[in-house]
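Bench notes, afternoon.
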Amino acid sequence: MMYSLRMNTCTIENCQSPVIARKFCRKHYLRWYKHGDPNVVFDTLKGIANAAIKNRKHGCWSHELYPVWHSMMARCYKASHHKYKNYGLRGIFVCDEWHDVRNFIEDMNPRPTGLSLDRINNNGPYSKENCRWATAEQQARNSTKSKITDEVREKIISNYEKLRSPKKVAEMLCIQPYDVKNVMYRIKRLSFLPEEQRP
């Protein structure tokens, strides 16, 4: 007896690959299984190119600032991005105007050679008023790592004595856990020095 086997194709638009599960091909099924979205695009150069094809309607996909805008949006809104915890999770957001890449390009073009996008107020949003093109040295001075004042240091010490947890202290003071660890390590290290050698 002869049987006719009909090979179904993936239900994702423009994908002709055979279905393996849930009406998706292998590639889109794995994306759905891992990220919850079969159309997820990864933040690699290839991913940026694929995202650009989806957004051709604005005509800016080939502009030199498009990858900068795309990375900025991913850091703030894409939970799977490797830097999301330092941006979106901290409450950093992109102003409404810059959700349209054309406005971002209009405000920040041209980009000086060798500089990258930086927020003036490190706890503020991405916006025209709060952003500039900065050197790596300027960005390092403006990072959260450099924001531990004497007042914050005292709060770290007093709260750490009660909570004994860098993570809980960091959440309470809205700073990074490594800041708490660095302060406590320095105190511990200094406690072993003779008093005349302490700064």
